[in-house]
Amino acid sequence: MATPVPEYEKTFWKFEEILDNLEMTVTSWFTTPLVLLIVRSIFLIYSLITLALSIYDELQRGRLPMYLTCFTNLGFIGLTAYFTMAVIHSLTFVVCNEPKSLSTQPRLLTIAFWILYHTIIVYHILIPIVYWAILVPSHTEESPLLAFHEISMHGVNFFMMIVEVALNRIPLVASHLIFVLTILILYIFETWMNNAINSEPSYILVVADWREIPKGMTIILPYLVMIGIAIGAFLIQALIHTFRDAIGRRIWRKHLMQEMETVPRIDENRQGIAISNRKIVRTSANIDFNDIEMQAR
């Protein structure tokens, strides 16, 4: 008998949805947990290398104190932290065949991991858009290390994020947009205060520098643009997640139905007991897609 579908507590944040279905963090609609682990491990190694080279480059330029004031760097640190936790959870699941690391860690850490997921899937759309649309035309420095840094943090980051979204089964919750916007607004406020106090900008994201705003534009417009892009990115991700889950459930339903149709049964027409591979005739009325969905999970 299939496991009954749990009744989620109807809370605004819907934390119980992920806490009651930890397997969604370490499984995929389209591949095996092992393949998901391999992909995440490759992304983690690349992220760590990129982060190390980025810090080294800032150290060589004498700008290391400014490193954490750049939204791109903060966003990439968040992405690296996400893949670090994702690899740990995936590895535990592959070895133990259950989400042991998720089930034994404090619930608050699981919730934090879920919130971090919502931030990276939005910020790593926002960061490439702002960079390629605004910052690239004014970028004059060229070096192999700098080129690797810029491409990794403003291009490859998007690729890694979108592949992760496509492969995992983590749900997107509309109310978590509040977390995404709150963190972004706090960063904008912090940079605005830094540049109001300091004689020189203490960050790299020019679009948030109120002194760089052309005449005729209101002082708040760049901030509204960034927030608007973040909201748009969240809506795009909502569509991607809906499409991913719809396709994934359809594939799993078809797969499970085929398995059920080819289950061997006892053939009583022969002497003794023989096993035949004749298909079991079933009607659509006998199919409980909720049960099938839970089996897929």
From TrEMBL:
The keyword Transmembrane helix applies. It comes from the Eukaryota. One of its GO terms (cellular component) is membrane. Keywords: Membrane, Transmembrane, Transmembrane helix. This is 1391_t:CDS:1. The chain crosses the membrane at residues 34-56, 76-96, 108-134, 146-163, 170-189, 220-240.
